[in-house]
Amino acid sequence: MPNRQLSSSQRKTDFISLPDSFFTQAMPKIQDLAELKIVLYVAYLILRKQERPYFVTYKELLSHELMATMGEETLRQDLDLAVEHGTLLHSTLNINGVLEDVYSLTAESRQPPAVNIFALYEQNIGIITPMIAEELKEAEKIYPPQWIEEAFKAAVTLNKRNWGYIARILERWASEGKDSGEHRRNIKKIDPDKYIKGQYGHMVRR
């Protein structure tokens, strides 16, 4: 049968979903059309991801045609405005040895996580200090709930019950990639000193 080009109405269409709170809480904070375009496009890029960190880097944004047409100076200004108005979150992460500006959605712009990072910490490590609480909030904004839960499980399995160790696992997965299925199959076979002796050993507290 000869191949036929599909019409626009026949092509598969992918959808992303935004929670009601985006329209009732996040949108009222948006000041102009440029900021709305930035927030929606960041949401589009992030919500299409499934098993990856829930953020986009500035380089990713700049590489997309729609954002590139704005010009780098305008893009930076509008991103800064969105962060200032609380419609986007900004962080700096070490990715492959390079500090990268990354942007993520506020709680109002995404579905609530299935995993409570604070409960995981209290159940597996102990009392949450104010400083740790801030780090947990930041991690919850950036990493998928499944990653957070699996990182805690890995740390508990290896009897490395401290947040520094768990944070390094999450950073490594964000930097190098992660196969969730493979991780689950091999979790009991992990060398207890793998991260201590390896590339991230100097960053992990025993």
Describe the secondary structure blueprint for this structure.
Blueprint: H1 20-26, H2 33-47, E1 56-57, H3 58-63, H4 65-68, H5 72-84, E2 88-95, E3 98-105, H6 117-124, H7 130-142, H8 145-157, H9 163-176, H10 180-186, H11 194-197
Helix pairs in contact: 2-5, 6-8, 8-9
Question: How would you describe this structure to a colleague?
Answer:
- The chain has 206 residues and is mainly α.
- It has 2 domains: 20-109, Orthogonal Bundle (Arc Repressor Mutant, subunit A); 117-203, Orthogonal Bundle (Arc Repressor Mutant, subunit A), CATH 1.10.10.
- The chain is 50% helix and 9% strand.
- The chain contains 11 helices and 3 strands; from the N terminus they run H-H-E-H-H-H-E-E-H-H-H-H-H-H.
- A 3-stranded antiparallel β-sheet has the order 1-3-2, with helices on both faces.
- The N and C termini lie far apart (64 Å).
- The model is unreliable at 1-12 and 180-206 (pLDDT under 50).
